[in-house]
Write a structure and sequence with these properties.
heterodimer, A: alpha+beta, three-stranded antiparallel sheet, 9 strands, about 45% helix, about 20% strand, globular, B: Rossmann fold, 10 helices, about 55% helix
Chain lengths: ~300, ~240
């Protein structure tokens, strides 16, 4: 499995019939391509290959049939440290696996025929769910649902698969994993186990011999704190943290914190205080200071709201 | 559109499931997020993923939860969606216009930039409108009840939240949801009933996503037990959906 969080080691993939490839973030693309050129390795780029929720598009670098896989992997290993520096430096929220199936139009049509016609031992087609699912999607979007009791999870689950992209023909992605028994949602590990099982026991074998790629990705379950803030609020929060005495807050630290509170109020943005607390913890603020800062955030925000209301 | 009592009867007779009462703004937000919060600051798009997740969950298991809206929510949505779609399209046009400026500069400077595909030609606005419509269509509507309209009017007359600034619509929704929950509880409904509204001005405790202290006693009344959330995401987390 290839993991595309930016901190991960880049691994060349060889599935599909169109040759080895690697996926990178836009930030990593420039460095990697310049190194590949310097090494004299031929490649071409599919820059709009994948769009993940909450993250920028990922690019696919294709090396073509007959590429020297070992040599490419050697190059990737050699620049891993540099690539990590080019990754997203933001705090990361927990992530989960995504699966995208992409190929040329003809191959995807063949895959869809196989989805319609071929029965895979453990997976059951759920046309009843598909009918309801399709009603929630844009017109002419293809929708599939397959269910199975996944052994590692111990519960029956439904996997939702939908089309996306121009003419809905070029890409299928796994858009949901929903348990069919019990009210507890799947945790991130269970979700990932289902995606892996679906890939290995269903869509992988089904796509065998076709010119399609199974793109395994990781994407955050929810946006990070920074992604919910305006650029100015983000800058003020980061400035506060960088300058703060994390053992005992200085009056100037508190002034910078107030400045952050004022900016979020001005932006009219709702800051999730749980996310804010987690962010402060990752930045090294002890529990006592985190509680103090969150409390000040809430009271400051409330005061500003009352002030606004009274002035209206 | 069934009267409140009919919906209550159906819920109490059917399989047990939690109820999610929605405000108009939370359904419109799925499209309205493509707009400026303030000049230079785009709105947050965090409402989309929870709505998508809820609809996927209900496609798999329609008995996992019941979405409920008032007749007023439906009417407000219908009246506003076209204008909001237009604003969203204008927003994308503006973004395209902004991006064209550095591309012009790059042309003069001889700098090569990656290909930019104009966002305004995409189906994004239509797709978000489809999502918003799907959420609306998933909901059961509560018919207008004259008593609840009168109670809402009383709030306006007495300047009581959520009509403290003289607007009646929020009180119409609030009174219907209070009565709906009260009748559910009277019939022995033991599942959670939650009310979601991102309307900070009228429902929230200042800028904090909890119910305003003035409204707290009404939703916490043992005969009601209606929980408030400032976002669908928070409500789904609470309901383990």
């Amino acid at each position: 499995m290839t993991n595309f969080t930016t901190e991960a080691r880049l691994t060349i993939s060889t599935d599909g019939t169109s040759g080895p490839y690697v996926m990178v973030t836009p930030e990593q693309l420039g460095l990697l391509t310049s190194v590949l050129r310097a090494q004299g390795l031929p490649f071409h780029i599919d820059e709009d290959a994948v769009l993940l929720s909450w993250t920028p598009a990922l690019a696919v670098i294709n090396f073509g049939p007959g590429a020297d896989v070992a040599k490419v992997q050697q190059v990737l290993d050699g620049i891993t440290d540099d690539l990590e520096g080019k990754g997203n430096r933001r705090h990361r929220s927990p992530s989960q696996k995504e699966l995208i199936v992409r190929g040329d139009t003809r191959s995807m049509q063949q895959l869809r025929r196989r989805l319609d016609e071929e029965v895979k031992a453990d997976w059951t087609r759920r046309t009843d769910v598909e009918e309801r699912f399709r009603k929630t999607l844009p017109q002419r979007t293809s929708a599939y649902c397959f269910s199975k009791r996944v052994p590692t999870v111990g519960r029956p689950v439904a996997v939702l698969l939908r089309g996306r992209g121009p003419q809905d023909g070029e890409e299928l992605y796994l858009s949901g994993v929903i348990p069919l028994e019990g009210r507890e949602p799947l945790d991130a590990d269970q979700h990932d186990q289902v995606v892996t099982d679906f890939r290995e026991t269903f869509i992988g074998p089904l796509a065998s011999g076709l010119n399609v790629r199974l793109l395994d990705c990781c994407s955050p379950i929810q946006p990070s704190l920074e992604e919910t803030l305006s650029l100015e609020a983000r800058n003020r929060l980061q400035s506060f943290s960088a300058a703060a005495n994390k053992s005992l807050l200085h009056p100037l630290d508190l002034r910078r914190w107030d400045s952050f509170i004022a900016q979020t109020h001005f932006d009219d943005r709702v800051v999730d205080t749980v996310l804010l607390g987690e962010w402060l913890a990752e930045e090294g603020f002890p529990q006592e200071l985190r509680d103090q800062l969150i409390s000040q955030y809430e009271s400051g925000h409330r005061l500003l709201s009352v002030y606004d209301e009274d002035r209206r | 559109m069934p009267p409140i009592a009919t919906v209550v009867g159906q819920l109490n007779a059917g399989p047990p499931k939690p109820v999610i009462c929605l405000d108009t703004c939370d359904i419109l937000e799925l499209v309205q997020c493509l707009d400026w919060e303030k000049p230079g600051t785009p709105r947050s798009v965090t409402s989309i993923q929870p709505a998508r997740h809820l609809l996927s969950t209900l496609a798999v298991d329609p008995d996992r939860a019941q979405i409920v809206i008032t007749e007023l929510v439906y009417r407000e949505w219908t009246q506003n969606i076209a204008g909001i779609r237009k604003k969203a399209r204008d927003f994308l046009l503006k973004v395209d216009d902004l991006v064209s400026q550095p591309y012009q500069a790059a042309g003069f400077a001889g700098t090569v930039l990656p290909v930019y595909v104009p966002l305004s030609t995409s189906t994004l606005v239509d797709d978000l409108a489809t999502l918003s419509t799907a959420l609306l269509n998933q909901a059961t509507q509560l018919n207008f009840e004259p008593i609840q309209i009168q109670l809402a009017l009383d709030r306006v007359m007495n300047k009581r939240r959520p009509s403290h600034d003289g607007h009646i619509k929020d009180s119409i929704n609030f009174e219907h949801y209070l009565e709906f929950t009260r009748l559910l509880r009277a019939g022995g409904f033991a599942e959670e009933v939650v009310f979601v509204s991102k309307n900070r001005k009228d429902y929230w405790d200042g800028g904090i996503a909890r119910i305003h202290p003035d409204l707290q006693p009404e939703i916490n009344d043992p005969a009601v037990q209606l929980r408030f959330f400032g976002s669908l995401n928070a409500a789904l987390g609470y309901l383990h959906i």
